[in-house]
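Entry for the shared binder. Reason: the reviewer on the internal report wants the predicted structure included alongside the sequence.
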Amino acid sequence: MAITGGGRGIGAATAAALARAGCRVVIGDLDVAVAERTAAKIGARALPLDVTDRAAYTKFLDEVESREGPLDVLVNNAGIMPLARIEDEPDQVTARILAVNLHAAIHGTREAVTRMRPRGRGHIVNVASVVARAPGPGAATYAATKAGVLAFSAAVRAELRGSGVAVSCVLPGLVATELSAGIEVRGYRPIPPETVAEAIVRVVRRPRPETYVPARVGVLLKIGSLFGDWPQRMSGADAAVLSAIGSAERAGYERRAR
């Protein structure tokens, strides 16, 4: 199986969890050195991957199959979240968020389907976010891409009905990785990436259309949808993201993501 953005954060935790479960894991990441260190710790394989380069992404999957056999699971995990009010977000940053978060997931899914459908089996897991259902200020483009991943996954799932190929979408809440650096929501503790990884392993074992992490978030979102954006404003989630824009805690991540 292959995982994009597997060198750090959720991707690295997922690679480790899948390796512990006995899976043969190949990590793809733009930062090859980090990916190789992660892979060495868990007995996996690391390959260079720029998900925005579609030819390179296809070549990565070719290499995975050449080394490990037919692709049975693809986890589209790579993602970035630069923060900015929309009027302050440069167009090149907007384009990069779209390329990494949405277009790469579309291309990877398409490539996986062309390999899996003829064999009548396979599983594609696309990592989205709860902001797909509850978008807020300061990360509008990020929210748009994750909503796109959710809708895209649902549409492809319908196309593949009866084919033996499953498509799942995992929607984490705020996770304790550098992507969420500087974002502090009153009364909410970010979940560790290992919690998301465990959920992905469960989904790989037993495919489900949508999985929220933690599970209670899905229930809260359904209840909250009855009240518009009032729950987010009252919880301070909106203000937390806006106050993180330009913060020192995010400086390193923002430079790398942009």
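Summary line for the report: Residues 178 and 253 are 6 Å apart (CA to CA).
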